[in-house]
Design goal:
With 316 residues, the protein is α/β, with parallel strands linked by helices. The protein has nine helices and 13 strands. The protein is elongated.
Length: 316
């Protein structure tokens, strides 16, 4: 019997288990209530600050909208003037026309990058920059292309810059520039650029040794980008020189130093090919012989002649 009295009844164990579950649920409810109370207390303490923050954000958004609306629509910012700076040969009307659709609207509605790109499409414009000036003005700064030669071709006469861009010819402009041949509007921009790169190399190298070269060289033929051909004129006449694509100054000097002695031997020198090491070829270009040469039967009129030049060997 005593052993039986010490044993815990099953119904009592079940009651204890149920009681423990109820305690856990109550604890969870109390914790949830405590969390809500803390959150509510926080909101009550900071409600003013939160309201101010929301109000500030709303005001900032409205302020931004109001400013943009004013800048884009207020008559004070309506485009009144487009000022051009740096223009000499480019037609100003071409640049002003780019802003025709912007007239009557706010300067802050103008797509500046788009206008800049459009202006740089104008032939004479190398680069451009645009700025807004309060309250209603636009300024355009232009860097014009600089012509370096006259291009003479079947298309007519054009000015050309060092990039090979054909610029036309402003009616009132005056230039003292060398003549180049071998460029055409039909050439690709890359081909013209390559030919003018050759021209610039020839002119700069020869000018480094003869500052008066432009008064002696009447034209540069760029038809073959592997062979720059220049025409040198003096009292005895004009001679075409083949300079190739390198060593321009040395080859030019070889001609200037020896043309006198060559003319004593050959009375009708029309062209000189200086591309070969240690020798030059006279009258390599076909041409009609002069009457005087036919009369004295010198044999030098159009016949290719090879003449050794030790000086040329030393310079090369």
């Amino acid at each position: 019997m005593d052993q039986q009295s010490d044993r815990t009844p099953d119904w009592l164990n079940e009651a204890e288990v149920v009681g423990q579950g109820e305690d856990a649920a109550v604890k969870r409810q109390r914790r949830a209530a405590s969390s809500r109370e803390k959150r509510n207390n926080f909101l009550r303490r900071h409600a003013g600050k939160i309201s101010i923050g929301v109000a500030i954000a709303a005001l900032a958004g409205y302020g931004t909208w109001a400013v943009n609306d004013t800048l884009q629509n207020h008559e004070r910012f309506t485009l009144a003037e487009v000022t051009l700076l740096g223009t000499e040969h480019v037609a100003q009307s071409e640049i002003q026309e780019k802003f025709s659709s912007d007239r009557g609207g706010s300067v802050f509605r103008i797509p500046m990058e788009e206008r800049r790109q459009e202006i740089e499409q104008i032939t004479w414009v190398k680069s451009a920059s645009i700025g807004r000036f309060f309250p209603n003005r636009i300024k355009v700064y232009v860097e014009e292309r600089v012509p370096v030669a006259f291009s003479v071709s079947g298309d007519g006469i054009d000015l050309v810059d060092e990039d090979g861009v054909l610029l036309g010819y402003p009616p009132e402009a005056k230039f003292d520039l060398p003549v180049v041949r071998g460029l055409s509007e039909k050439d690709s921009a890359e081909d013209r650029q390559a030919k003018m790169k050759l021209f610039m190399a020839v002119s700069r190298e020869i000018a480094s040794g003869d500052e008066n070269w432009s008064k002696v060289v009447s034209e540069v033929d760029l038809t073959d980008p592997r062979d720059a051909r220049i025409v040198v004129a003096d009292n005895a006449g004009a001679v075409r020189l083949h300079l190739g694509n390198e060593g321009f100054l040395n080859r030019y000097k070889t001609y200037m130093e020896h043309i006198g002695e060559w003319r004593k031997k050959f009375s009708n020198i029309q062209s000189v090919d200086l591309r070969y090491s240690g020798q030059v070829v006279l009258n390599a270009d076909p041409a009609a012989p002069k009457a005087a040469d036919r009369k004295n039967n010198s044999g030098t009129g159009n016949v290719t002649a090879t003449l050794a030049t030790p000086q040329a060997k030393q310079q090369r």
